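Q: What structure does this chain adopt?
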Amino acid sequence: MMPPGLMIAAPRSGSGKTTLTLGLLRALSRMSLRVGSAKCGPDYIDGSFHRAATGQSSVNLDSWAMPPALMAGLAVQVGAECDLVICEALMGLFDGVPGAAGRTGSSADVAAALGWPVLLVVDASGQSQSAAAVGQGLRHL
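A:
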């Protein structure tokens, strides 16, 4: 059975995903919740930061490089005996490679495949109502 999870994503890199993810992982761990962590794509640096925040190993989830069963199995493995899995997205929510639906490697593909909702991090500096349009666009895409 798929563990409960949450994807932390953004419209682009440099929006604060890693900072928010690490803060959530550390805060939930300090609240004595059992929290697992994952990172979309082949990024191994952020997984090391996740381990420092939780004391637990992190996994990489990649819908382009991994067969769906392997990706789901890793999600189940990291979520075993956890209350929640926090998964940090890569780049922008829909960034990946051209490919079949669900196999582009995008964080949106991973969230959809695992049934995890997306928490969108938007750096709204220099914006006002336009930030809402970005959020609505991502929601509808």
